[in-house]
Amino acid sequence: MLLSLPLLCASLAAASTLKSQHHQIQKRDDTVCTDLSVSSNNGDRKVAIVLDSSGSMAYNDPYDLRIKAGRALNDFLISSSEASGSQKADLVTVIDFDDAAYLDYPLGDPGKANSSFDNVDATGGTYIASGVNMAIAQLNGGGGGTDKRSAIVVFTDGEVRVSHTTQLISTLR
């Protein structure tokens, strides 16, 4: 799956903002992605933006940086009004999850998706697999292939029930 460089930049900007506001940023021992790249911005991508809306986000993301980063990624995508010549329009879906997944914006034009980020709150449990499963269904159901041109980008604090983590790994394989 292709991950977007602007996403990395938005995440780094968010981390820098938090640090400058004297909040503690915890370093995790998780493996770091080192193969993030965008080979071009010619469009024709299908991207699922999946946002954690569980209760822990009220404490772990009090400034809604995950929502701002999701919007920044969406703004990077090529809308139908921006498509011309060699640039093809992208497609995006916006999903949030807590105990269940919620479809905030079905796979469609990124130019019309920004208001869907307003639906993301911070209540409930954390069931990441529900958000990823809905993202897979949206990307596969939107017509056209997904090979080498689709991505699922998940913004989360990573607090999840262990049993759901095992299920998520199984689903992704």
TrEMBL record:
The keyword Transit peptide does not apply. Keywords: Signal. The keyword Metal-binding does not apply. Residues 46-173 form the VWFA domain. Residues 1-15 form the signal peptide. It holds the Pfam family VWA_2. It comes from the Eukaryota. CDD domains: vWFA. This is VWFA domain-containing protein.
